[in-house]
Amino acid sequence: MIRESLYFSFAGRKSTDFPIVNVSIGSGLYEEALTSSKSIIETSTPGNNVPYFQRVKREPKTFPIRFAFLEPWNDEMIDDIIRWLDTDYYEPLFFSSNIDRVFYAMTTDTISQIHNGLKQGYVDLNIRCNGAYSYSNDITTPIYDVKSTQRIRIVNDGHESTFPEISIQKIGDGSVSIKNYNNNQTLEVSNLKDKEELTIDCLTRQIESNLPGIHRYDDFNDEYLELVYGTNNIVITGGCRLVFKYNYIFK
Fold first, then answer.
1. pTM of the model
2. What is the spatial order of strands in the sheet that 174-180 belongs to?
3. Which distant-in-sequence residues (6+ apart) come within 8 Å of 71 by Cβ?
4. Cα torsion for 85, 89, 92, 97, to the nearest 10°?
5. pLDDT in tens, 123-181
6. Judging by DSSP bridges, how do beta strands 230-237 and 174-180 pair with one another?
7. Spatial contact of 165 and 245, defined as CB atoms under 8 Å apart
8. Is 177 exposed, middle or buried (0-12, 13-18, 19+ CB in 10 A)?
9. CA 142, CA 144: separation in Å to the nearest integer?
């Protein structure tokens, strides 16, 4: 995906703003890692030749980028590129061959300029992501207008489970429950007021109500909704208007 792309976008700015193009130097086939590296965390005990498995640790994704100049550069162009690429925080990065695969990345090491002394050449840089995954762009479902009970389907085409942000506007006093039959999980909030607006971030586990001084954690059953891979079969119970926002997660 990276090697075959001519163009990329980083920090909200496109490489087509400059006379540059993504290139690979060398011959033969492209080689690209499909997943980040991982290590096995385990503990050995005396007298046991089989170590005790604890967990897997996935390392942040890393990869190089090389782009060539299509015309001789000048100092102003190089300064602009440095300001663009040399950030001190993670920024969204995606490539032209798949704009719906977003990395959150920054450059590491040095940004190197390789040239022939005539202001012609290319630039090498190394990228490190904020974790082992990349993401789709934001996906927002239609607004579901639930009178009493409604069945819906939400598709997760990523490699991992994802945790949505759920926005609820209550219709009438009472409770709202959301059951995912794929993993037999039910999220429920009770004692909601008519026209109350509630946001539940299932990833960060934060709940916000638009009613002043109201915190709904005591009215919540502590089940944050998980969308597993595939088509999630969900039943919503309780009068409300509701929308889900989420991302696919890719290894």
1. 0.85
2. 149-156, 230-237, 174-180, 185-192
3. 19
4. 50
5. 899 999 999 999 999 999 999 999 999 999 999 999 999 999 999 999 999 999 999 99
6. antiparallel
7. yes
8. middle
9. 6
Place of tokens 């990349």: 134
- Tell me which long-range contacts 69-75 makes (C-beta under 8 A, separation of at least 24): 69/19, 69/20, 69/119, 69/120, 69/121, 69/122, 69/123, 70/19, 70/20, 70/21, 71/19, 72/118, 72/119, 72/120, 73/119, 73/120, 74/119
What backbone torsions phi and psi does residue 236 show, to the nearest 5 degrees? Answer: -105, 130
Q: ∠ CA 161-182-241 to the nearest 5 degrees? A: 85
Query: Mind listing the pLDDT tens digit for each residue in 90-130?
Result: 999 999 989 999 999 999 988 888 888 888 888 899 999 99
DSSP letters along 63-99, please? EEEEEEESS---HHHHHHHHHHH--SS-EEEEETTEE
Tokens 């992501």: give the residue: 129
